[in-house]
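Sample 1 of the test manifest.
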Amino acid sequence: MNANGTKDRILIVDDSELNRSILSDILCEKFDIVEAADGLEAVNYLEQHPTEVSMVLLDLIMPVMDGMSVLKVMNQNNMIKTIPVVVISADQRAESVEQAYKLGATDFIFRPFDSFMVYRRVINTIMLYSKQKRLEDMVTEQIYERSKNSRMLVSVLAHIVEFRNGESSAHCLNINTITEKLLNALLSRPNNYNIPRADVPVICTASSLHDIGKIAIPESILNKPGKLTPEEFEVIKTHSMEGAKILNAVPFSKDEPLIRYAYEIARWHHERYDGRGYPDRLEGDKIPIAAQVVSIADVYDALTSTRCYKPAYSHEQALTMIRNGECGTFNPLLMECLEEIAPSLREELGKDAALFEQSSRDLDTIADELFSNPDLASSNRSLHLLETEREKFSFFWENTKDIFFEYNAETSVLSFSKAAAYLVDGGSMVVDPLKPGFLDDRFNSIVALELDKVLTHTSYEYTDFKDEVEWNGVTYRIEGKTVWDYEASEPVMTSIYGYARRITKTGAMI
Amino acid sequence: MTLKECYELIGADYNDVIIRLGGEDRVLRFIPKLIADSSFNDLIKAFADEDWEAAFRASHTMKGNYANFGLTKLQTSSSELCEMLRPCVFNPEAAAQLEIVKKDYADAMDALSKLG
């Protein structure tokens, strides 16, 4: 039995029916057995049930596709990292044994086999793997928690600065996004900066702290409408050095990449490539690359945002001004990167997708951390699957012609598939739809009303609901499901999803 | 004939098979399957078709099966045949060895089918 209370499944791959049935006889009491008569059948089964097989017992000499080829395929699709393979063969030649081990086989059982040994080795192998899997899950969880917590703290700090600054809270998010895109563009071309891929999310998080030194600038200067006097401007300019001082005074973790990057960015994000920036008038690549990247992101976002001293410029105007050097000179390689990402910047920024954005970035960060760690890399196939599912989901969500909705009980966000956008004014997302005063005559209100009803009546024993509601003289059928978290002592409802569809008076779907 | 008598008759290792397969019960249950196993016929057919790869595979399966059931004599002769066929090309020695395997196979099957 495994942790889920079900039998672990073993795939027995052997062309001899006699062998399969003897092995099955030895193991069937404790395990759920699936048989494959050759390598191809085995590979097909694994591809279709990637998470269901706990172990493979593999014969080597088989028609159609032999055992070594099965191992090769499992190396290509990375299954060898998560599914243990024990080879059972009468082939005792050293070169076969060596090759099987090289291809990732966990163990080798020679024939004639001893039934008790087969049984014990299978059990031990499965136990070992499930123990390792549990440990990996714990590590993943901790990496996730750690990066989530540090990002949260950083964003709280950044928001304090922004709040005092009168800047929109989108500024940090935008800088994050632009920094990330620039870095990815930079990493995808030949360069001499040696930035580890795993540092990209760290630099993005650190970028939020670029203006932390503004906390030391008097509010009267910071928020002065209209032009600053030269003296006042000099005061403003001290914010980069002030920020560096604050970060330098952090009593511990000075060697942490996050703090190191944050220091570089805070101190040097107003330096310019030609040496005409401040505070240190650094020139060229004497300016750390993280600071160079964030300086472009900062300039672009400052230009395209409204500030107390200026209106917002359009995307094109901002690009032209940067190209013309109106905001100083930048690294030509980074200018190339900016041109490359420019089309996606216009699309992405200013979209009200901050919520989705952030959560998807969280996932990316974990993925990055995981993939940068060779021990964890690829071994966590479940994460891959999660990523794939997420992408699939957002594709369907964007492209379906039907009205789907999802209510997340934890964040109180009600979102609609793109097709519903024309019915749901104010975007495809509604925060806190159930708060008093929200309900009115808009379409999202009838969904919200339905949710209200569901929330009052639902229980984890009845997860499905179905109703018909009228809106603007049209009848809609609303059908959905509630999702429960059973981990808690009392099941907790975590989300509701479903669809709404127009129907005729007779009840037929349109 | 008991299993023990049968095994002694055909030069097979009774004690070994009982220990490895965990009791007479399992051996007896699977012997009909061993008799019904197609690898011997596959081997004969592969020789007739001059399909040396199939012949190698069949002899390899036989060698493993007989080893598992402790049929020492038959295992030895089919194992030798298997090594001769490993390069998957025609081999006059293999043709001669096939005759030995045929004889051992007939003896073994004859005795196994008389099990009470």
